[in-house]
Fold this protein.
Amino acid sequence: MVEHGVSADGTPFIVMERAEGMTLRKLILEQGPLSLARIRDLAAQLLAGLTAIHAAGIIHADIKSNNVIVDTVGGIDHLTIIDFGLARTRSSRHAADDGRAVGTPEYMAPELFRGEPPTACADVYAAGVVAYELLVGITPFAGDTPVEVLQRQLDEEVELPADARALISPELEAVMRRALDKDPSRRFPDVRSFAVAFEKAISRLILDGAR
């Protein structure tokens, strides 16, 4: 649950519940490769949470697997999005508005590196990186240095490793490519559209008997 408002002196604030569990990144490292059914459930919760955040008029601006907590109880995963330190309301000013890129490089949309302010579309991109990470185990544009990550984010199109491509359908690959398109205008128009397309594609894989 996330609550936001404005204090008596006019300062915006956000309040979150305390979340138990491990980060999604740790879960991927320790328990991966994950089954498609589990990936579908985790992605659905992530995208539903992000949809609710956007509906509340908030841009998260730092979606990444280390900012997602998973509490597994009785074999059922419960996911919570955390760390709203870079979040902004749609109407507020933000540090990035002055041309400075803020965020975690491996998850940042290319336009953020050019100094554009965080948007819901940039959150879609970051969620796409996390979805890729769930499927493959690593982020699509990792690098040894922030500069290398920057160059890959700006210049390289997303590619699935050969072993992953053998397990992922062309339909699901197309969904990932759209979510991670360098051009914001070609991405999914909102998180909900991404969620519907991802769920549809991965459910077909599961019905076909993939991992």
User: Anything to note?
Assistant: Residues 132 and 139 are 7 Å apart (CA to CA).
